[in-house]
Write a structure and sequence with these properties.
The chain is of the alpha/beta class. The protein has 13 helices and 14 strands. The protein has three domains: 59 residues, lambda repressor-like DNA-binding domains (434 Repressor (Amino-terminal Domain)); 125 residues, Rossmann fold (3-Layer(aba) Sandwich), CATH 3.40.50.2300; 132 residues, Response regulator (Rossmann fold). Helix 10 links the parallel strand 8 and strand 9. The longest helix is centred in the first third of the chain and has 16 residues. The radius of gyration is 28 Å and the shape is elongated.
Length: 373
C-alpha cells in the first residue's frame, strides 16, 4: 500500500509505520483513544431518556423539569459529551446563542449592559453574539436579519428607540417575524417594539438631577442633549423641563443643544452653549460621555468646575468617579438591565409584552456646587 507524501508525491511508508515511528495520527470521527465520537443518542441511552428530551435538557429548552435536565447534564459531563451548538441549526432549529444588538459597543453604557447579558447567559449555558449599529436604523435591520439567518435562539436589542415610530418599523417587522417562528425577543429602552422590555426611568432620573442643580441655587441652566430623534433624549429632556417648571421657571427658556451622544458631541454642545448663553451657570449633559466632553472644553477655556460652572452627567459609567472633578450624575443599573432582559428572553412568551421599569440613584460628587455670587 502506498500513501501520498506531504510533497504531493508517493511514499513507500505504510499506514502502520506512522504509529511505529511515533507520528501522531488523526482520525476524523473518533476520539483520541480510538473510540467512536460520542453522540447525543449515547447520552440519551445512558440517561434513560428519549433523544428529544436529552436535546431539550442540554439546550436549556422548555418542557423538561429541572431535576431531569440536571440528571442529563450530569450524565453528559461524566461521559465527556460536548454539545454541538450548530447541530440544531443544520436541522432547521435554533441554537443556544443569543444575539445582542447595541448602538456602539465601545460606549461604556452598552458595555455594562452587555456584561449583564453575558453573565446571565453564561449561567444558563448560552453564548452571546454582539453586533452594533452606530444608531442607524437600516444597520439595525441588517443585523437582525443576519442574526435570524444564523438561527440564534433569542435577540436582545439595547438602546433608545426613535421618536418617530416609522424609523423602527422595519426592525419591528423583523423581530415580530422572529418571534412568530419561535424565537424570543427582549429589548432595553425601546417604547414602540411589541416585545418584553426593560425600561430605564429616564424622565424621573432627569428630573431628580435637575432638582439637585436647582436646589443649589442655579437658575441659568443649559442642556447638552443627544440626537433629537431618540426617545431616550426626549424622555430625559422632558424630565429636565418638568423639574424646571416645578421650580416656577419657564421651561421654554431652557437652552437645549442637540449633538451626538459622544465626548465630541459634548464638546460641540458646550461650545454652542458658551457662545449663545455665556451667562449659563450649570450644564446638564444627558449622558456621561457627553459630560466628559463638556468638562474637556471647559478646561481648555479656563473655566473651573464647579467654581465657575457646574456640570452633571447621566448613567454613572465607571469612569465618572475618576474624572477631575468627579462627576455628579444619576446612576442607572446598566448591568442589571442587561441581566433582566436576558432573563425575560428565557421565559415563555406571554399574551401581552412584559414591561419592567428600573430605578435610579442620584450620585452627588464634585462637579456641582452653588453658583458664584
Amino acid at each position: 500500500m502506498w500513501q501520498a507524501s506531504r510533497r504531493g508525491g508517493l511514499s513507500g511508508r505504510r499506514p502502520g509505520d506512522a504509529r511505529r515511528s511515533g507520528a501522531r495520527v488523526r482520525r476524523e470521527g473518533r476520539t483520541t483513544r480510538g473510540r467512536s465520537a460520542l453522540r447525543l443518542v449515547d447520552v440519551a441511552e445512558r440517561a434513560g431518556v428519549s433523544l428529544a428530551t436529552a436535546s431539550r435538557a442540554l439546550s436549556g429548552s422548555d418542557g423538561v423539569s429541572e431535576v431531569l435536565a440536571e440528571h442529563v447534564r450530569e450524565v453528559a459531563a461524566e461521559m465527556g459529551y460536548i454539545a454541538n451548538p450548530h447541530a440544531r441549526t443544520l436541522a432547521g432549529g435554533t441554537t443556544s446563542v443569543a444575539g445582542l444588538l447595541v448602538y456602539e459597543i465601545g460606549d461604556p453604557y452598552f458595555s455594562e449592559i452587555a456584561s449583564g447579558v453575558v453573565r446571565v447567559a453564561t449561567e444558563h449555558g448560552w453564548s452571546v453574539q454582539i453586533s452594533h449599529t452606530e444608531r442607524e436604523p437600516s444597520a439595525e435591520v441588517t443585523q437582525i436579519r443576519l442574526m435570524r439567518a444564523h438561527r440564534v435562539g433569542a435577540i436582545l436589542v439595547a438602546g433608545s428607540g426613535y421618536v418617530e415610530p416609522a424609523m423602527e418599523s422595519d426592525a419591528a417587522r423583523e423581530l415580530e417575524a422572529f418571534q412568530e417562528s419561535g424565537g424570543r425577543v427582549a429589548v432595553i429602552g425601546r417604547h414602540h417594539l411589541h416585545s418584553d422590555a426593560v425600561l430605564p426611568d429616564n424622565e424621573a432620573a432627569a428630573a431628580s438631577i435637575t432638582a439637585h442643580v436647582l436646589a443649589l441655587g442655579h437658575r441659568r441652566l443649559a442642556v447638552a442633549a443627544g440626537p433629537e430623534r431618540l426617545t431616550t433624549v426626549a424622555d430625559r429632556t422632558a424630565g429636565v423641563r418638568s423639574a424646571v417648571a416645578a421650580h416656577g421657571l419657564d421651561p421654554d427658556d431652557l437652552l437645549v443643544v442637540h449633538a451626538p451622544f459622544t465626548r465630541e458631541g459634548g464638546r460641540d454642545a458646550t461650545a454652542r452653549i458658551l457662545a449663545e448663553r455665556p451667562e449659563t451657570t450649570a450644564i446638564l449633559a444627558l449622558n456621561d460621555a457627553m459630560a466628559t466632553g463638556v468638562l474637556s472644553l471647559l478646561r481648555e477655556r479656563g473655566i473651573v468646575v464647579p467654581r465657575d460652572l457646574s456640570v452633571t452627567g447621566f448613567d454613572d459609567i465607571q469612569v465618572a468617579q475618576d474624572l477631575a472633578p468627579a462627576l455628579t450624575t444619576v446612576r442607572l443599573p446598566m448591568s442589571e438591565m442587561g441581566a433582566a432582559a436576558f432573563e425575560m428572553a428565557l421565559r415563555p412568551p406571554s399574551a401581552r409584552p412584559r414591561r419592567r421599569r428600573t430605578d435610579h440613584e442620584l450620585v452627588v460628587r464634585d462637579s456641582t456646587a452653588p453658583p458664584r455670587a
